[in-house]
């Protein structure tokens, strides 16, 4: 497999290291990094690439997907903060007849964590004494808030707990309504990513926590996703990949 990494920041460097260790040919594309192999997504940088992995910025990811699609290359979309334009991206992928897999977090460990949260939520749906809330922490360079991972956690919880049907991510200066799920965020330091789901009752608190120690887990998952999407057509998310890894509906 031959991959093109779009965005040669810290995450791009980590993906490059993991991919090369697996014997994968890599080229990097970044207009803002002089050490990247190419400055632009064009015929030269896309030549012989099987899959493109985008880990850039919310402001540029849609334009990147449009450019990549013109060269008929499959895509791993790891950039977060663009999910409000999901329908637009689905149309781009359908019209180009290519494949794309997206996730707010490609770490295999995080996606196992999602499965655990889903099972816990189904239990808590039956026990109304427990309220639920989410908190996430990331480094001070992260461009979006809440994290894509936290957004995905919010969807899992609201899909499986009937008494929670609205996600609130802003600062609350009022009493929270019973049907609202609050996701709070902290930005500071060099934290790769920490997410905590808390189920709280008058008697006790149950916490489900995932702490990333480095970007290596994200990079490995992204490379696995690139291998998985290589010869596929259509719009996929990480759940489709995880079903192949761990099974289940």
Description:
The chain is an alpha/beta fold and 249 residues long. It has two domains: 137 residues, NAD(P)-binding Rossmann-like Domain (Rossmann fold), CATH 3.40.50.720; 104 residues, Dihydrodipicolinate Reductase, domain 2. It is built from eight helices and eleven strands. The chain has a six-stranded parallel sheet with strand order 2-1-3-4-5-11, with helices on both faces. Strands 7-8-6-9-10 form a five-stranded mixed sheet. Strand 1, helix 1 and strand 2 form a beta-alpha-beta unit. Helix 1 packs across helix 7 and helix 5 packs parallel to helix 6. It is elongated. The model has no long low-confidence stretch (mean pLDDT 95).
Secondary structure blueprint with pairings:
Elements: E1 2-6, H1 10-21, E2 25-29, H2 43-46, E3 51-54, H3 61-70, E4 74-77, H4 86-96, E5 99-102, H5 108-124, E6 131-138, H6 148-160, E7 166-168, E8 180-187, E9 194-200, E10 205-211, H7 216-229, E11 234-237, H8 238-246
Parallel strand pairs: 1-2, 1-3, 3-4, 4-5, 5-11, 6-8, 7-8
Antiparallel strand pairs: 6-9, 9-10
Helix pairs in contact: 1-7, 3-4, 5-6
CATH superfamily of the largest domain: NAD(P)-binding Rossmann-like Domain
Order of helices and strands: EHEHEHEHEHEHEEEEHEH
What share of residues are in beta strands?
15-25%
Query: Helix/strand-derived class?
Result: alpha/beta
CATH C-level class of the largest domain is Alpha Beta
Q: What is the tally of helical segments? A: 8
The rounded Rg comes to 19 Å
- Give the strand order of the largest sheet, numbering strands 1, 2, ... along the chain: 2-1-3-4-5-11
β-strand number: 11
Indicate the multimeric state: single chain
What percent of the residues sit in helical stretches (DSSP H or I)?
25-40%
